[in-house]
Design brief:
- The complex is a heterodimer of chains A (155) and B (468).
- Chain A is an all-alpha fold.
- Chain A is built from five helices and two strands.
- In chain A, a hairpin with a 2-residue loop joins strand 1 and strand 2.
- In chain A, helix 4 runs antiparallel to helix 5.
- The N and C termini of chain A lie far apart (54 Å).
- The two termini of chain B are 40 Å apart.
- Chain B contains 21 helices and two strands.
- Classes of the chains: A mainly alpha (155), B mainly alpha (468).
Chain lengths: 155, 468
């Protein structure tokens, strides 16, 4: 866990220092009249100390109680990355394009491109899922999903 | 007697047709979630939270509670049939349960798991009925310093008992606390840690955070490895355990029930640990310890009873004191708040329909589960055959829709996805998510108790420090 803990130790340390600085700016107040930053300043300090300990343990190569793991595998990392990108794109375009098109696109992407299923199967499943999801969430549960491009159809 | 009146009132609430329907859906979905590997009760409850917004608080909590203890039932099905635990609390059931299945005794294994869970669940609810009001009475005398101390203790115990490094778990609690501060500070009216980012002005919502931490990150982690599932194809028959099975199981069930219940009450204890503890105890006291690991029915009966009792027991601190005992209860706390209820000792008096209605619905839910689980097993086996490449896009879609529908804005979706990445990285770098969630939920309460304790002129920091 040495290398991994070095990375995470530094990350949390930087985060903690950042929070500490922000909290200080918010105002600490006094002990009997604590300001908005009071609790978080001290929490940041404690977090910073703990991340330093994690960092130092990693540097000194001391054996911790956890087994080591490989952080990132090879080609499955790409898969995860692509899935994540597709999810962010979904969120970004949900309201502009609309729920139905964007959901169709997502499923076609995930099943057809990432999972490499046959096209007929992909399109079939995508349509079924999109329709079902629409019926369940929009028609039944009245979730008010974004209409986007299909607004003119006025479902 | 007051107690009987309360319970009757609870029945009145729980037996309303709408609440019965919600209860039924809750336990059904819970069992489904328990059966499916890769989706735990925490994620399921988080995912289904948005769909409860239109319901009354009572109906919502009844359904969500049903999901929780339903998942405990469902988890045993996959453990026994496929040797893959449906959720963490069923890991132990794999050990002997699957062995029993391999020897053609899947039926009695499933049967005893169901019956044991029923007995345990019922006991837990009875105990909840008796202990609940008593605890609420004590807690009414608590002031802000006592609450602060209690919350800190809860976080500490969860940290202490978490998997992996205690230091890292404590760090996650600190991070959760900090994240809880994002947004507007109610005492001073100033914005904290928002950096002019629109989506952060309202704070980090509990629902998107939990959906990301438990739902999305779980999917991302599962994408790394191909989960191979060999499902027992022979017909599962003869679900009723024999008299001999009962004789061997009844004491483990009773022991597991008591053990699980008490471990469930303690913050941080919970279903997972109690199932492991029960297995260890049963092996110790057994006359044939060498049979454990080869299909000893006590190794199924005890842990299954323990995890259901723990699920029931974990409601106690939440409903009486307003302190969540584990990550799932933390989400419940959030759910109560979202529905406008203030959990705490006053919950019982302010919302008796919720308090007693939920408790009684748990009796009913346990009964439904017993009836559901045994005949529906072929259905669950079919569900297990759905390949993961269909399941995970569905789960992801569910998360996307769910987080969007909280406030009809994509900001929550983005928060959820960010937490998804964070959760995934946390898993890889071995940081536990439960303390973060607990601290996030308690954060608001924690800070106000903290500041009130310090502001009030009559108090000194001493009671606070005593909490440590």
């Amino acid at each position: 866990m040495g290398k991994a803990d070095r990375i995470s130790g530094i990350f949390w340390l930087v985060f903690a220092v950042f929070i500490g600085v922000q909290s200080y700016r918010l105002g600490l107040g006094t002990l009997h009249k604590p300001g908005p930053g009071f609790l978080f300043f001290w929490t940041g300090i404690i977090l910073a100390i703990m991340s330093l300990i994690v960092l130092l343990r990693a540097w000194s190569g001391k054996k911790t109680e956890e087994p080591g793991i490989s952080i990132f595998g090879t080609q499955n990392t790409r898969k995860i990355l692509f899935v994540l990108i597709s999810l962010f794109l979904y969120a970004r375009f949900m309201e502009t394009i609309g729920f139905i098109p964007v959901t169709l696109l997502l499923f076609v992407f995930l099943l057809g491109i990432i999972e490499k299923k046959k096209w007929f199967y992909t399109i079939f499943v995508s349509v079924v899922v999109t329709v079902a999801a629409y019926l369940i969430f929009e028609t039944w549960l009245k979730s008010q999903l974004p209409k986007g491009l299909l607004d003119f159809l006025r479902f | 007697m007051d107690m009987i009146q309360n319970v009757l009132y609870g029945f009145q609430v729980a037996l309303q047709p709408l609440n019965l329907i919600y209860c039924f859906f809750g336990v059904l979905i819970g069992t489904l979630v328990g059966v499916l590997p890769g989706l735990g009760p925490a994620a399921a409850i988080a995912l289904l939270l948005p769909s409860t917004f239109k319901a009354t608080p009572v109906s919502a909590i009844i359904m969500l509670a049903g999901i929780y203890y339903g998942a405990m039932y469902g988890g045993s099905t996959t453990s026994i049939l496929v040797n893959i635990p449906g959720e963490a609390a069923s890991v132990v059931t794999c050990l002997d349960g699957h062995q029993m299945a391999l020897r053609g005794r899947a039926g009695p294994a499933l049967g005893i798991a169901a019956f044991g869970s029923f007995i345990a669940g019922t006991f837990a609810v009875i105990a909840l009925t008796l202990v609940g009001p008593f605890l609420s009475g004590i807690a009414l005398r608590f002031g802000p310093p006592e609450f602060f101390a209690l919350m800190i203790v809860g976080i500490m115990v969860l940290t202490f008992l978490s998997s992996g490094s205690m230091l890292k778990a404590l760090m996650m609690a600190a991070v959760g606390l900090i994240l809880g501060g994002v947004g507007m500070d109610s005492i001073s009216g100033r914005y904290r840690f928002t950096f002019n980012i629109q989506v952060l002005l309202d704070g980090v919502g509990l629902v998107p955070a939990v959906m990301g931490l438990f739902g999305i990150s779980e999917v991302l982690e599962n994408l790394e490895t191909e989960i191979k599932r060999e499902i027992l194809t022979e017909k599962v028959k003869n679900l009723l355990p024999s008299l001999k099975d009962w004789a061997e199981s009844i004491w483990p069930i009773l022991r597991g029930t008591v053990l699980g219940f008490f471990m469930g009450i303690i913050p941080g204890g919970g279903a997972i640990i109690s199932s492991f503890a029960s297995y260890a105890i049963e092996k110790k006291v057994s006359k044939h310890p060498e049979e454990f690991g080869k299909g000893a029915i006590a190794g199924v009966a005890g842990p299954e009873a323990a995890n259901n009792a723990a699920a029931g027991g974990s409601f106690i601190p939440l409903l009486t004191l307003g302190i969540p005992a584990n990550a799932v209860m933390a989400i419940f706390l959030g759910a109560l708040m979202i529905h406008g209820l203030q959990p705490g000792p006053l919950l019982m008096s302010r919302a008796p329909d919720l308090f007693w209605g939920t408790i009684v619905s748990m009796y009913i839910g346990n009964g439904m589960l017993l009836v559901l689980n045994l005949p529906l097993i072929p259905l669950w086996v079919m569900v297990l055959r759905v390949p993961y490449y269909i399941l995970y896009p569905l789960i992801l879609l569910f998360c996307l829709i769910g987080s969007y529908s909280i406030g009809n804005n994509t900001g929550d979706v983005l928060i959820m996805l960010t937490f998804g990445i964070l959760g995934y990285l946390m898993r890889k770098f071995r940081y536990d998510g439960a303390p973060l969630v607990l601290a996030l939920v308690l954060g608001g309460e924690l800070e106000s108790s903290f500041r009130q304790s310090l502001i009030s002129p009559s108090s000194s920091p001493v009671p606070l420090l005593l909490g440590f």
